Amino acid sequence: MGFAIRPGERVMSAVRTVLGDLPAGELGVCDAHDHLFLRSPLLPGQELDDRDAAAAELRAFRELGGGTVVQWTPRGMGRRLAELPGLARETGVHIVAATGLHQAVHYGPDVLERVDDGLMESFIADLTTAPVRAGLIKVAGGFHGLDDHARRTMAAAAGAHHATGAPIAVHLELGTGAMDVLDLLCGQLGVAPGKVVLGHLGRCPDTRTHLRAARAGAYLAFDGPSRAHHATDWRLFDALTALAEAGHADRVLLGGDTTTAAARGGPGMPHLLRVLRPALAEELGEDFVRQVLVGNPARAFAADWPR
């Protein structure tokens, strides 16, 4: 199933990929939240650090019609930026990289001591002058709220957004705290809701919050097949149906969110297109599938980048 933006469909100017800026209409089918490389002290022995395995995932995604993968791995978590352009060229998949910072628990004291020291400038440099440039800013909330670390990193992310136009992608811990994030980023820090992508909403099946966030204008990412500790698959269809029936299909994004080496032996990136895409087409129709896999990411991840 190949898709492209239809003539006359409005998208913003470009998505910043690791090979340069790409007209948003050329993204194709998009995995809106995934990881090719990832390292965290919370996941000892489960690092995503195998280049061959990353290439195999991208090729499998491409063979099923995939066009773009958005890697949400932020600074200090083994994102391996230098590897990404070669992978994009070899596999034919566009890759969008991230700057930003995750929750404090993912870092040692050497990183955390520098959180207030030029963080916004580091994000801006990653987005505008680095040899391999990021195309989004990844930050994270806490469980049902925001701690001081989250507030500081989100303030830096908002500053970098205002300087560059880059979208901000937010890890919501177990899918919670969406409105706290929007209150801070959009209400206090002046980020337009349409420049915010809220991740992991499928992990908290709170339809009222989903609808509030969609009405506010944010993008809602439902990312990842069920893990052993959070059964989300059956709830996903209920959540997406509720959003579609309320007229918010234009706010939905889908992703795989592969985070551990063990997950590479499971569904992986291809699951999004091999299993989920046909099931959604049967349930909600081809137009819905095309919108959430192609049209929505083309708008969510595009910006008028400074030259």
Write the layout of secondary structure elements.
Blueprint: E1 14-17, E2 20-23, E3 29-34, H1 51-63, E4 66-71, H2 84-91, E5 94-96, E6 98-100, H3 109-112, H4 119-128, E7 136-140, H5 148-164, E8 168-171, H6 178-188, E9 196-199, H7 207-216, E10 219-223, H8 233-245, E11 252-255, H9 270-284, H10 286-300
Parallel strand pairs: 3-4, 4-5, 6-7, 7-8, 8-9, 9-10, 10-11
Antiparallel strand pairs: 1-2
Helix pairs in contact: 1-2, 4-5, 9-10
Family: Belongs to the metallo-dependent hydrolases superfamily. Phosphotriesterase family.
Organism: Streptomyces blastmyceticus
Keywords: Hydrolase, Metal-binding
Describe this structure in words.
This protein is of the alpha/beta class. The chain has ten helices and eleven strands. β1 and β2 form a beta hairpin. The N terminus is likely disordered. Keywords: Hydrolase, Metal-binding. This is Phosphotriesterase.
Summarize the structure.
With 307 residues, the protein is of the alpha/beta class. It has helices at 51-63, 84-91, 109-112, 119-128, 148-164, 178-188, 207-216, 233-245, 270-284, 286-300; strands spanning 14-17, 20-23, 29-34, 66-71, 94-96, 98-100, 136-140, 168-171, 196-199, 219-223, 252-255. The protein contains 10 helices and 11 strands.
